[in-house]
Write a structure and sequence with these properties.
Helix content: 25-40%
Radius of gyration: 35 Å
Number of helices: 26
Number of strands: 32
Length: about 800
């Protein structure tokens, strides 16, 4: 049968809520710990990824509480977004009602897991009291010139008459109606994140407790490249095409230029050429594709010769100008010099289009272009490179760049991959952008006293015709705050990443009505000490949060530059080798597991199955094993009364045995405290649990053979305390059964005694002529003479020596004795 987990878990969850157990407040003279997991999108049900993420965080939060820290451990909901609007269209309902219903369900499930959240600090980003401050931050950016409007292309479904996120474009088609998706230029709002690019890159060096993989992903996304801008003049023209390259050492091997289809000079180059019409059709076809299609590395590269030529400034050679879909206007200058001998992408394109290949960096393995089967991208010696021939290419890089600057054919430059952040969404369910358009005054910010600009109560959701906001007359029409004439509101809403870029600050002052947060609260709690979430947020969310933090610091609202001191990215939960999903039919519902096994079993299993950073494979047998282990601990507490009342009349009782068992168990207690403490601090929860399993085995062994009950009682109490962050409900119940005062969560975390865990003996492995024949345990201070005496008098060793003379008696430092006879 086992323990009644349903009754126990309900009892303690009600107790924690009734006693406001995890509520905290700002206490400036107390050491704080801010533990935060990335808040969920309210899809309606929590999944095993949520369970894993939040269980990992909860162990650390409960542990830090027991260490005496003032622990802030909040939870909320990233509640705006496209799925709610899609659900409204599909179910003919209101996204607000759908979202609030999902939040209620997920909150219920999270509480069933026994997570130690301060629910009084809960935030939902879809509520006006939250998104008012989204709008306030936007206006501060607008004032500083960091929020601006310009034309930009979006994915557009002509049948649905609406924009689509990249994720909604599947193989170039609308996910809903399967129509071909095109690109459409719309006026969009951007945030000038590029103004902070240097700080975002420079400050990565301070994030010493972030995974190296995440730091590298952010560095690559920022994409700082040092190189040279080279000026290629058009043949028979004064017009110049600027090309940026990081491989100026290959300039003498450039055999053609490639322009992005949107490059502004392209139309001028093809004007009047025989192929003009074909190229215009090609440009329109490529530009109408979603970016997800022609920016894909898997797609074949398509291009056309423009009929134009450019002059390579280093050798005055005429080289053809092509247009191709693999060059993007968003990166660099929208033009590249193609060096097929030394760039694999250029090599494949050149081979496909019969373009020349010229080697200018020689290696032993690459002697001539005709022998190339792939581009040579390594180092070597310059050849066919004018006055730079014979130089190592890394040395040539520096000298060629310097020569270009001196002769005016190029300049050293630093380019970035990072582009400004497009935040406009042609959607209803998001934060309204607080901007008004007036025919007299132009673009006007909504006055701060008029915030929040709230979403209307009612809107028509058809899935067609753009944002539903654009059809709500009462929302659109307003008065210009400057000239008081008729005006219209912006109908775009903000990308939901805006909401999550500062939410960690709002948790500190969730009820503040005058400012986004109170300075004294944020100064105490921030930065977040430990942040936990999925690797999929390594770039966008984490980069945007860093950007917002730096901006708010520049406003003087906060004093720190980085929001998250430590970062843990947990692995995914798989079933049958694949990520759990409805489409694959391999979902495991946490509610069902809690009903059948209890929240503590689920918590224990998901922590024991794999280290947090690794993927874990779901196993029903592993779950059953975790449940059995909890029952085994519970039985320890039940048996403790019987063991306590043992009498000394037991047959075969030996006082020496009792003393030896006591000493062994005492040492095991302190070794386990040390192991579990260190493992929690380093997120090695699986090995912490394994050490407690060993501890339980030792308690059972000693309890069944020894009579010294005080040490058994002590061991069981320590076990309950150590395991309580992992399985809090059963731990609380066992603590009460043991007669503990208060709750186990209020107990101080045990401290191990380093003197007790010191090894008092050494086990020597004894070899005779190189083969292991015995093991002998001796006090740690045994002299070598005494060691020799004991070893040679050992019966097992004597049976192997058989009165033969000992030629050598060798003591190896790693507790090994080798006897040579």
């Amino acid at each position: 049968m086992g323990y009644n987990f349903k009754e126990i878990e309900k009892k303690w969850q009600e107790y924690w809520e009734r006693e406001k157990f995890f509520q905290v407040k700002t206490e400036p003279f107390r050491e704080k710990f801010y533990l935060l997991e990335m808040f969920p999108y309210p899809s309606g049900k929590i999944h095993m990824g949520h369970v894993r993420n939040y269980t990992i965080g909860d162990v650390l939060a409960r542990y830090k509480n027991m260490r005496g820290f003032n622990v802030l451990h909040p939870m909320g909901f990233d509640a705006f977004g496209q799925p709610a609007e899609n659900a409204a269209i599909k179910n003919n309902t209101d996204p607000r009602r759908w979202t609030i219903g999902c939040i209620d369900e997920m909150r219920r499930e999270l509480k069933r897991m026994g997570f130690s959240y301060d629910w009084t600090r809960e935030i939902s980003t879809c509520l006006p009291e939250y998104y008012k401050w989204n709008q306030w931050i936007f206006l501060r950016m607008f004032e500083k010139g960091l929020a601006y409007r310009k034309k930009a292309s979006v994915n557009w479904c002509p049948d649905c008459e609406t924009t689509l996120a990249n994720e909604e474009v599947i193989e170039g088609r609308c996910w809903r109606c399967k129509s071909n998706v095109i690109q459409k230029d719309l006026e969009q709002w951007f945030l000038k994140i590029t103004a902070y690019k240097e700080k975002l890159l420079e400050d990565l060096k301070h994030l010493v407790d972030w995974p190296e993989r995440v730091l590298l992903m952010q560095k690559n996304w920022l994409g700082m490249s040092e190189g040279v801008e080279i000026y290629f003049r058009l043949k028979d023209s004064e017009d110049v095409i600027t090309v940026f390259t990081t491989r100026v050492d290959t300039i003498f091997g450039a055999t053609y230029l490639v322009l992005a289809p949107e490059h502004p000079i392209l139309r001028k180059i093809i004007k009047g050429k025989p192929q003009e019409e074909k190229i215009v059709n090609f440009i329109e076809r490529v530009c109408s594709r979603p970016k997800t299609v022609y920016d894909s590395a898997e797609c074949s590269k398509e291009g056309m010769f423009t009929g134009g030529f450019a002059i390579n400034p280093v050798n005055n050679e005429e080289i053809p100008i092509w247009v191709a879909d693999y060059v993007l206007m968003e990166y660099g200058t929208g033009a590249i010099m193609a060096v097929p001998a030394h760039d694999q992408r250029d090599f494949l394109f050149a081979r496909e289009n019969n373009l020349p290949i010229r080697v200018v960096i020689q290696s032993q393995d690459y002697i001539q272009s005709s022998a190339l089967t792939e581009a040579y991208e390594g180092d070597g010696i310059q050849v066919d490179s004018g006055q730079f021939s014979g130089l190592p290419n890394q040395e040539a890089k520096v000298k060629i760049a310097q020569w270009m600057e001196e002769t005016g054919i190029g300049n050293k430059r630093c380019h970035w991959r990072l582009r400004d952040w497009l935040i406009s969404r042609q959607r209803f369910w998001g934060t309204p952008i607080p901007i008004i358009y007036c025919d007299r005054c132009g673009i006007v910010a909504v006055p701060e006293e008029d915030l929040p600009v709230e979403l209307p109560e009612r809107a028509l959701f058809t899935g067609k015709g753009g944002s539903p906001l654009g059809r709500v007359e009462s929302f659109i029409h307003t008065i210009c705050p400057r000239c008081k004439s008729s005006a219209r509101r912006e109908t775009d809403t903000m990308a939901t990443f805006f909401d999550s870029s500062w939410y960690f600050l709002r948790y500190c002052s969730p009820y503040c009505k005058d400012t986004p947060f109170k300075r004294e609260d944020v100064s105490y709690w921030l930065p977040v000490d430990q942040y936990i979430g999925g690797i999929e947020h390594a770039v966008l969310h984490l980069l945007y949060s860093r950007f917002f933090t730096k901006f708010l610091k520049d406003l003087g609202l906060i004093e720190f530059s980085e929001p998250f001191q430590k970062l843990l990215t947990q692995g995914m939960v798989l079933k049958d080798g694949e990520v759990m999903s409805k489409s694959k039919g391999n979902i495991v519902d946490p509610d069902g597991i809690i009903d059948n096994f209890g929240a503590d079993t689920l918590r224990l299993y998901i922590l024991f199955a794999a280290p947090p950073e690794d993927q874990m494979e779901w196993s029903q047998q592993g779950l059953i094993g975790a449940h059995r282990f909890l029952n085994r601990i519970f039985r320890l507490v039940e048996k403790e009364y019987r063991w306590t009342n043992k009498t000394k009349n037991t047959i075969a009782f030996k006082p020496d045995d009792d003393k030896e068992n006591r000493e062994k168990l005492l040492r095991k207690i302190h070794l386990t405290i040390k192991k579990v403490t260190e493992d929690i601090e380093s997120f090695k929860f699986n090995t912490a649990i394994a050490s407690m399993m060993e501890f339980v085995n030792e308690i059972y062994r000693v309890a069944e053979s020894a009579l010294n009950t005080d040490i058994i009682q002590e061991a069981i109490k320590i076990l309950v305390i150590l395991i309580s962050p992992f399985v809090p409900h059963i731990a609380e119940e066992m603590w009460r059964e043991l007669g503990g005062n208060e709750t186990v969560s209020k107990q101080g975390w045990p401290v191990y005694d380093s003197e007790i865990i010191k090894e008092n003996t050494i086990t020597y492995v004894i070899q005779v002529n190189g083969k292991v024949r015995s093991k002998i345990e001796l006090p740690i201070d045994t002299t070598e003479d005494k060691l020799r005496e004991v070893v040679l008098s050992d019966r097992k060793i004597q049976s192997w020596i058989i009165e033969k003379p000992v030629k050598k008696f060798i003591v190896v430092p790693n507790k090994l004795v080798n006897i040579v006879i």
